[in-house]
Amino acid sequence: MENFPNNNHKSERIRFDGRDEAIPLVIELAQQAKHRICILGRNIDHVLFDNPDFIECASRLARRSPRSEIQIIAQTTKANMQQGHRLIELAQHLTSDIHIRNPEKQQQTIQHTWFLVDDFSYLICPRATQYSGFANRHDRLEVRELYLQFNDLWQHSKSDRSVRRLTL
User: Fold this and answer.
1) DSSP readout, 53-68?
2) Sign of the Cα pseudo-torsion (32, 33, 39, 45, in order)
3) 70: alpha, beta or left, given left = phi > 0 and alpha = psi -120 to 50?
4) What ranges do the domains of the chain cover?
5) Which of 60, 114, 131, 145 is a plausible cystine mate for 40, CB 3.0–4.6 Å?
């Protein structure tokens, strides 16, 4: 099925249920990233985005090219800072490549987690506290729609100053 060229612009939607299925999907999609990763959530999920394999992919992408970028919109990063999230630490070292923002107050009702890769892949957990949802390895039309929504939130967000400096 997925081994043949896809002529209808949509590949198989993958359903996943639980951490054990979500984490390998996130890592697989991150390994394919060439230009951009976008993350949206209540926070920067520690299960999906604070593991050595994901951090390695993020670091490689951020250093790949001056045009590579990782954009993160998190309602709050307070718990992430307290837990010592590795993606925040990476962002503190690669300040021009990894950007973390908070949405404007009226939009702080994020109840889901989105993970967008380049222009073709996504993973969505409709409920941020549960690791079940769907993903797709190649769906340019859906990613374009999701990215338009993400970019609108990005344009109406502010830089998360709490993650900018390492406190000693």
Assistant:
1) HHHHHHHHHHHH-TT-
2) positive
3) beta
4) 13-160
5) 114
Cα 86 from Cα 72, distance rounded (Å): 14
Token output for 115: 């993970």
Amino acid sitting at position 106: Q
CATH class (in words) of the domain with range 13-160:
alpha beta
Please report the DSSP string for the chain in residue order: -TTS--SSS--PEEEEESHHHHHHHHHHHHHH-SSEEEEEESS--HHHHSSHHHHHHHHHHHHH-TT-EEEEEES--HHHHHHT-HHHHHHHHSTTTEEEEEE-GGG----SEEEEETTTEEEEESSTTS-EEEEESS-HHHHHHHHHHHHHHHHTEEE-GGGTS---
pTM: 0.90
99: phi then psi, degrees, rounded to nearest 5? -120, 130
pLDDT digits (tens, 9 = 90+) for 24-76: 999 999 999 999 999 999 999 999 999 999 999 999 999 998 899 999 999 99
